[in-house]
Design brief:
Elements: H1 5-20, H2 28-45, H3 50-66
Length: 105
């Protein structure tokens, strides 16, 4: 029996997790989370809009769960990222000027 399209996508995701897993004993939810975080860092480096990409992916995923062959855009997805729980930004480091200022004679 042939695998469903969604099962083939899941197998591809398993291969991606295996390729970047730093700990082979790590549980699947943690491995998925780590992969998503790594993709976010990649988007930062490549100047891609990670939240827009994830939003589009979630819309497509919702549609594909019902009909894997559908090309519908999917439902509205809203992602809110608050500031609660974030660390404080680092304080700038003051550098001491070790040069002696010369005074005009």
């Amino acid at each position: 029996m042939r695998k469903s399209l969604n099962q083939e996508h899941a197998d591809t995701a398993r291969k991606a997790i295996a390729a970047c897993a730093s700990d082979s004993d790590q549980d699947l939810p943690t491995s998925v989370s780590d992969l998503v975080v790594n993709l976010a860092h990649l988007c930062d480096v490549e100047k891609l809009e990670f939240i827009e990409i994830v939003t589009r992916a979630l819309r497509h995923w919702q549609v594909e769960r019902i009909d894997p062959a559908s090309v519908l855009e999917g439902p509205v997805v809203e992602i809110y990222i608050g500031k609660e729980g974030l660390p404080s930004p680092p304080k700038p480091v003051k550098r001491q000027n070790k040069r002696k200022k010369s005074r005009p004679a």
